[in-house]
User: What shape does this take?
Amino acid sequence: MLQSIPSVDGILTAAEVAETAASIAAMQEPSGAVPWTPGEHTDVWNHVEAAMALLVGGQVEAAERALEWCARTQRPDGSWAMKVVAGQIEDASGETNMSAYLAVGLWHHWLVRRDFAVVERLWPVVRRGLDFVAGMQLPFGGIAWSQEWHDGRPARVNEQALLAGSSSIYQSLRAGVALADLVGESQPDWELTGGRLGHALREHRDQFLDKSTFSMDWYYPILGGAVRGRAGLELVAERWEQFVVPGLGIKCVETNNWVTGAETCELVMALDALDERERAMQLFADMQHLRDEGGRYWTGYVYPDDVNWPVEHTTYTAAAVILAADELSGTTPGAGIMRGHTLANHFSEIALECGCVDAEDSADVLAGRS
Assistant: This one.
């Protein structure tokens, strides 16, 4: 199957996007794992993001080897180890947002390749991962951050929820339900989990662990799809001045004069999902100062010192660039993965345990009309 490679007029050519995908493939390990950078650790969330970008950039074989790595390394409870270095576990804790994200990667693969055999092979892996995640929901609707492991066994649960992580899980649940419909195995428990989670992301953001100095906590409720419409535009306006550095991108942490490419590209996709195309295109153009030879991307830039830091090219930064290029250009059938129009419908807010009245019409909430 021949596939078009994205290009973004005046910013990146298709050849440049393909070169960046090849740079990710060059850093892939023989096992299929895609580490942050050679010699660094692999985590399943960034690994799946890399697989999606490889697919968009025409590196189909590398993308599918990455997906198969997920199947081989999942644990019986549905989780993955947080950090794996050259096949050895460095941090065994199981993070919920990471254990959920394969659903997005597999749905994206289906949209681009329409290969049902891959879906059938990986569906049980997705199901175990999302069952693990749904079992970690807290009474207010957020998803517990992680479960620690001790002596090779699940142990203590970290009973606090991360806003960015839970926002990503919301997208994963919608992708998981879309896959469930595709294979004919309905998952009503995921829909219930998603409804309660979406409500928490819209109405109870103060109940999540406070990471408000990180830009991810600002835009991820939009990127994950739980907050859109007028409410999304208002959320963007709240912190724009604190995080956006004109001409360079956005800060990773509000207090540091350090812009990062991955966060900038994620905000680009969040803005695109709000139909804020002009701002999205400008930020995408602004961050291209991080591009280096061979299509690689520096992680970030410290602007008072005029230096790239850390001194590394990361696969997750390159992957975010490729996915943003596809979202902006609408080139591949997977281009709407962040807009969410191919995912399952937003979930009804029922069986809430937070004390709020159940709301059946989440569409009104997302449009900012409730």
About this structure: The chain is about 50% helix and 10% strand. The chain has a mean pLDDT of 95. The longest helix spans residues 163-183.
